[in-house]
Amino acid sequence: MFDDLRDLYQEVILDHGKNPRNFRRPENATCLAHGNNPVCGDTLVIYITLDDDGLITDAAFQGQGCAISVASASMMTDIVNGKTVDAAKRLFDGFHHMCTKDDFDMAELGDCDEDALERLVMLSGVKEFPIRVKCATLAWHTMQAAVSGDHDISTE
Ligand code: ZN
Questions:
Q1: What is the dihedral of CA 26, 84, 81, 89, to 10 degrees?
Q2: Which of these, 5, 61, 66, 85, is most buried using a 10 Å CB contact count?
Q3: Distance of CA 43 from the midpoint of ligand 1 (Å)
């Protein structure tokens, strides 16, 4: 990655970390889950509101953690809003692959939201720091737990 691109990515991550989007507790969330990453001390609550068709009409979070976990939760809630649960899970698959695999190919994912994946590429730099992968994926694991009816997840 070019240095100036890397700086841009860090800026975006820092911005989301400092000014998280959707940092609130919605009144009418239909699903929620607690996510815990004991390695780093990140704890998040993810709130998802689903309509009758399985469409995510609201996504929000609260909690505390390192800049990466908060930035990831901020981006995740932004990205999944308005998507179906299936589409959100596919994006998580894609994001997880890009954080853990060297030979990730976006084309393999099929009909994923490419704009969303491109935004997530910013966070996939954590691949070089395996311990940070848990920080970056915590919000996504927790979102998946929430929509699957599990209420607590831990990265341990
Ligand atoms: Zn963390």
A1: 100
A2: 61
A3: 9
Range of the domain at 11: 2-154
Tokens 């997840």 -> residue: 153
pLDDT at 104 over 60: yes
Q: How far, in Å, is the centroid of ligand 1 from the Cα of 148?
A: 23
Answer yes or no: is pLDDT of 134 > 70: yes
CATH of the domain at 125: 3.90.1010.10
Tally of residues, the chain: 156
Q: Whole-model pTM above 0.70? A: yes
Distance 51 CA to ligand 1 centre (A): 31
Residue-wise burial string across 88-106, b where 16 or more C-beta atoms lie within 10 A, e elsewhere: bbbbbebbbbbbeeeebee
DSSP codes joined into one string, 90-143: HHHHHHHHHHH-TT--GGGG-S--HHHHHHHHGGGGGGGSHHHHHHHHHHHHHH
DSSP secondary structure letter of residue 30: S
Number of domains in the chain: 1
| 135 closest CA partner among 78, 65, 62, 77 | 65
